Amino acid sequence: MNAAKRSDTTPAALTAAEDRLNAILGLVGEQGFQSIDMLAERFGVSTQTIRRDVNALCERGLCRRRHGGVDVLPDAAQNVAYTARRILHREAKQSIARCVAQAVPEGASLFFGIGTTPEECAAALQQRQQLRVMTNNLNVVAALRRNPGCELVMAGGRLRNTDNDVVAGEAHEFFSRYAADIGIYGVGGVAEDGSLLDFSQDEVRMRSELAKHCRQRYLVLDHSKFGRSATVRGGHITEAHRVFTDRPVPAPIAAMLLDAGVQLVVASALTYPPLALTTGEH
Question: Could you tell me the residue range of the domain that residue 111 belongs to?
């Protein structure tokens, strides 16, 4: 028994457990409710182990318990915690980031907006030389600060502690002081009509200012953002020059992008079928 307990705390065991948590979170995000029995069978572990996993995810604020299983957190008025978003759809975000990195030349000047997908894009550019980066996202700074060939400029103002970004007050005019080759930004959601949605007016204002002052606009978002509700409208998907995502987008959105001459880059187009938009008010 003691040996078994010790083996559960080895680096390999801890890594396997964390990988399973990420996989469970991904399944819940993709498919909704997952039963304890189904998860135990899928991962080849006991139901007791899955219950511990579910407890860990719920304690982190990533999921909610339901009788016999686990489900997503329904709250359109508030974004999921940043720690949860970092895990959710991470492989999709990394595949998007690799595509973005291929489109960014050495020596480029870049704006980075807030969010986990721009953070992954920054991580994918860690080895790129002679970049000049302006951002209000401290996670982007952390990803690029060890690159001696990257000049970093950070917006000042009040830090949102949970998100590691600056979106209010004096930061509002930050991007207007520069002109960048490429702006890389995410979004809280995309409505059926192509409107971009976020969770606060400050977030929308910072994104809008970023988009105004760069020559090329790169919108980066995983498939879960299409049809996702958020409370504040600002901008339209067709205002981007390139849209990077991980799956084929809903047909009406694809038609909008085609008509507007926006380049759609799908990181894994051969893997998944097109999505259908969810209905409802946005």
Answer: 83-266
Q: What is the pLDDT of residue 90?
A: 82
**pTM of the entire predicted model:** 0.74
Whether residue 215 sits in one domain with residue 101: yes
Q: State how far the Cα of 282 lies from the Cα of 280, in Å rounded to an integer.
A: 7
State the Cα–Cα distance between residues 217 and 118, nearest whole angstrom: 13
pLDDT bucket at 3, cuts 50 / 70 / 90: very low
Residues 54 and 115 in one domain: no
Going by C-alpha positions, the residue among 279, 208, 184, 196 that lies closest to residue 237 is 196
Are 143 and 240 contained in the same domain?
A: yes
DSSP 3-state of 180:
strand
pLDDT tens by residue, 197-222? 998 999 999 999 999 999 999 999 99
Could you tell me if 19 and 26 are in contact, meaning their C-beta atoms sit under 8 angstroms apart? Answer: no
C-alpha dist (Å) from residue 141 to 80, 112, 123, 158:
22, 10, 10, 16
How far is it, in rounded angstroms, from Cα 236 to Cα 90?
25
Distance of CA 198 to the CA centre of its chain: 13
User: CA 244 to CA 208: how far, in whole Å?
Assistant: 18
Are 45 and 87 found together in one domain?
A: no
Overall domain count for the chain: 2
Percent of the chain with pLDDT over 70: 84
Joined tokens for residue 94: 């990394």
Q: 278, 254 in Cβ contact below 8 A? A: no
